[in-house]
Amino acid sequence: MAKDPTIAELFDLTGKTALVTGAVGYLGKAFAAALAEAGASVVCSSRDAGKAREFAAMLPVKGSAKHHGVGLDHMDLASLSQGFADAVKAGGKLDILVTSGHESCPHDWTNVTPEEFDRHLRNATGCFELSRKLREHVVGRKAPGSVIFIGSMYGVVASYPDVYEGMWTASPVAYHCLKGGIIHMTRHLAAYWAKDNVRVNCISPGPFPDKRAPDGVVQRLNKKLPMGRMGLPHELKGATVLLASDAGSYMTGQNIIIDGGWTAW
Asked: Which domains does the chain possess?
């Protein structure tokens, strides 16, 4: 009878290579660090290749892992294709994809233009194209793969108007549409790619504001949360490694919401 793998073995990413898009972003850094700390080689991407390489050089190295940085703009299909090819070349292979790259929408429902709305939804197109390339790459190698999309609690529930009123631009309707679509794309691709041994899951962070968020808005958000506080980037690490590793080998099509209880009431 075969011995069951230990917890340490299940979460170990030694020998795996991951591409993290938007790796130099506020949350992207946590996704990349989590994978590196678990033993993976990490290819960091950014629209600025220099920043990607600089950040990759700062990641912890476990065993024989090697980290790299490449330029990749997921809103530009030519850049996306070249960036993915560069990531494969740099890493030698790819096993894991985390789509943290994101171009924001500048306006809410009151003044967003149709052109801005359309452009924002192209974020989903970029995520899909990257995931399809990852699938083709791992299937061609006859290897398993893991895709981790980044959704949002705002892809599941509406925002409270009173949180933003008089202080900050309301949560953009285009963003809600985008993230809801990414969450459902997770389910769709998981159903179609399971036979290929490619798992597709999603992490949906709740409120993880950076320093740009006004203190007044943060205080209002805290009042809407059972835990009464904002999330910290490192609190996304556990779910990232779970979905990337054999610890999550029977998970696909799932959306893990990490929101301090926001969607619990």
From this structure: 8-264 (3.40.50.720)
